[in-house]
Amino acid sequence: DTAVSQTPKYLVTQMGNDKSIKCEQNLGHDTMYWYKQDSKKFLKIMFSYNNKELIINETVPNRFSPKSPDKAHLNLHINSLELGDSAVYFCASSPRVEVGEQYFGPGTRLTVT
Amino acid sequence: GQNIDQPTEMTATEGAIVQINCTYQTSGFNGLFWYQQHAGEAPTFLSYNVLDGLEEKGRFSSFLSRSKGYSYLLLKELQMKDSASYLCAVTDSNYQLIWGAGTKLIIKP
User: Fold this and answer.
1) Do A106 and B42 touch (CB under 8 A)?
2) Main-chain dihedrals φ then ψ at residue B96, nearest 5 degrees
3) What proportion of chain A, given as a percentage, has pLDDT over 70?
């Protein structure tokens, strides 16, 4: 049973394209997150949703737009992809905002050529 | 600003003990976490400290001193599979998780 799943696992695309990454958690958690991990392995929070509402929106280009259709899903859409967007994107969830123990999805390795 | 410092890389020998330090400066404190991340994989939860002292869980222990803004992760009886990055993270007053850059631990036979 996969707790936090992401699709696709790998994504190779060209500059200027638009792509989406999907995330689903079956843990019944209220809070979900999107992280970006670059080649230096630094994990950077991008967005956080609590019960479908945006609660954290770090300084990321507005080409990145999260969408939470329900509290079990948090998708990430990226417009006009750039070379610098190449990274691993992790989705995560936690029971509540106040609970820092987060469960991570397997990651999506995005390569922009 | 908020800051978490940990060594970039450490090397240890199989069977030995290693201590990975983490110092933090955050706006408020609601707990400190250690995560393990193997190359090419997602981070996984290791430990949580919210009160001062030592928390032991098998071969891994984590210590916290809130007055010093300091924590360490202690790994005993090192095994080759412990080669990974270890991430320190602190929950601030807004319950936002602030992440360190991680310590890459290399285990040698």
Assistant:
1) yes
2) -90, 135
3) 99
